[in-house]
Amino acid sequence: MIGHLLDLGLTDYQESARLQVALHQARVQDVIGDTLLLTEHLPVYTLGRTTRPEHVGEGWARGRINGIPVLSTDRGGSVTYHGPGQLVGYPILRLRPYCAGPKAYVNCLEEVLIRALDALGVPAGRRAGMPGVWVGDRKVAAVGVRISQGVTRHGFALNVVNDLSPFAAIVPCGLAGAGMTSVTLLTGTALELETVGRTVVWAFQEVFELALQKGRVGEWLTSSGARPVAVGCVSGKGA
User: Distance between CA 42 and CA 79 in Å, rounded?
Assistant: First the structure.
């Protein structure tokens, strides 16, 4: 099958979330095909549906932790951090052709990251009852999704060259004592985000048996007939 790849570059979380919603509705209506968004975000903490106050502390009520915004979302999972140097992927897929349901889908996203990391020389895997991708007892990638009207939103976040210190202010994914790591720490090499992104795209295509064609957001939305959405990209890869 043929799908679309949209690389947004560095974005504000809320703007990319609005784009997700627009593309989700377009996919529900079969206006567009299956799509993978790639981005990295300006610093932000996001709260999933299972977040508890003790996972966030005073930031829950204040809306900020050390000056970084705290935003509520409708994805699964608890609190996590996004920042520059972290590769974030948002698949907008009609799920039924690929997976039997949410648990199988999460497993597929984990498999994408495990295969990509293996290709980069990092042996990663799963931990029972702890969604995401792990290297030993340290988490290198988080997965949190939402499926509505048979179409997916949200997705995965892979620590590549990002600063990990903001994770210390929260209980990442609600897992007390879980350590975080990154591709840079695991390989001893500061790989470029673009290099890691290409490897993740390769693995995504392999797992989902989907050929992705790269395009630009503005041009593609216009040609598809989807409702236009402005995305204020900080880098030059987006609209």
Answer: 16
